[in-house]
Amino acid sequence: MEVSIRRLHFFSLITLLSFPRHLHASPEYSRPPPRPIIFTSHTRSESDPQQVHISLVGVDHVRVSWITSHKHTKSTVEYGKSPGTYEASATGDHTSYHYFFYSSGEIHHVVIGPLEPSTTYYYRCGGSGPESSFRTPPSDLPIEFVIAGDLGQTEWTASTLSHVGARDYDVFLLPGDLSYADTHQQLWDSFGRLVEPYASRRPWMVTEGNHEIETFPIVYPHGFRAYNARWRMPYEQSGSESNLYYSFNVAGAHILMLGSYTDFDADSDQYKWLEADLAKVNRTTTPWIFALLHAPWYNSNEAHQGEGESMRKAMEELLYKARVDAVFAGHVHAYERFTRVFDNTADPCGPVYITVGDGGNREGLALKFEKQKPSISVYREASFGHGRLRVYNQTHAHWSWHRNNDSDSFEADRVWLQNIYASTTSCTEPTPQSQRDEL
Description:
The chain is an alpha+beta fold. It has helices spanning 155-165, 186-199, 225-230, 269-279, 309-321, 420-423, 433-437; strands at 5-7, 38-40, 50-57, 61-68, 76-80, 88-91, 93-95, 98-99, 102-103, 106-112, 120-125, 132-135, 143-147, 171-175, 204-207, 246-250, 253-257, 288-292, 326-329, 335-342, 345-346, 352-356, 377-381, 385-391, 396-404, 409-418. Strand 11 (120-125) and strand 12 (132-135) form a beta hairpin.
């Protein structure tokens, strides 16, 4: 799809005027300069769907979300397995919201299904407009995830999405900071139009970041007004009471989408939900567990140092005892991969921690790492890019991080992950402190 864009002039002052280079970079790579913010215009009629994106609901349903300027467009989706032939239809609901002088369009959400796995469906929203298509994920392994945080809507974002779309995948996972609207609600619309060519074709599963909060004293004290209205996730299906944290199963993986910006201490609803959710996971049928959150628990970058520490202290032991395989975070605008860790110590039974807050945001890269690299940090680099997690079978998965170049992406880091629960009998019980100290 051809996306019409123009520069968003009133945000041009935000773009960095000077951009240090070569700091903590791979020696063979010279970073191109930063790229400006872009604004994606609305070029369709008032009744035509725009900002179309899909998300998973249960194992065989998909939620289709879109926006219309026209207030009376029906919240219906027609769909089928052949172009132009719609064998089924479903009706959902719609909402809208106000933020000071801004009024959103009509935000439609329709759940369709049951759907067959690994199947292409053609669909039309609201009975008009262009036909779209998506492919459902497989019901079993292998499966491939794309993971990228802190997207925003700069020319780096467009580059990242172009690299993502150049290779096939099944599900897009986003650990927070979507539009960088920061109360400028028109940027939510621009972001939805920018990502539509990708988010309408593969499920996008997201969790919130700090740029989604958008509180304003007295008037909007609770935050997440736009995020919750536009990006509805399947939290009810996992027993969560909040769109800010939830879980879902796909193929042989259980995915935890945790909320860094809602309560997480031991008395909180999120903590109690997470404890109950992990207790239900059957590792025989669902061997892999991955977690996503925004503020990283492990970080050797000077940016946002320690901001995830209170959440780590509250929840890390839950993930460790459940033998979570990997934890992905955003927030820090750089890439960093840690070894398996528990309580700041290398531990063969802990998760691998990976920061991928480098999708393309307007604030630039976090270029300054701590001079003394921690022993648990394996690879770190301040570059824009995206990650790919391909889970091959019950025991092995492959992670790769693809740095953005001007035109092509480059696989700068890669590692094979072994499922610690399925393949290591010593990890069926928590590792004693004495054994961890010997690593």
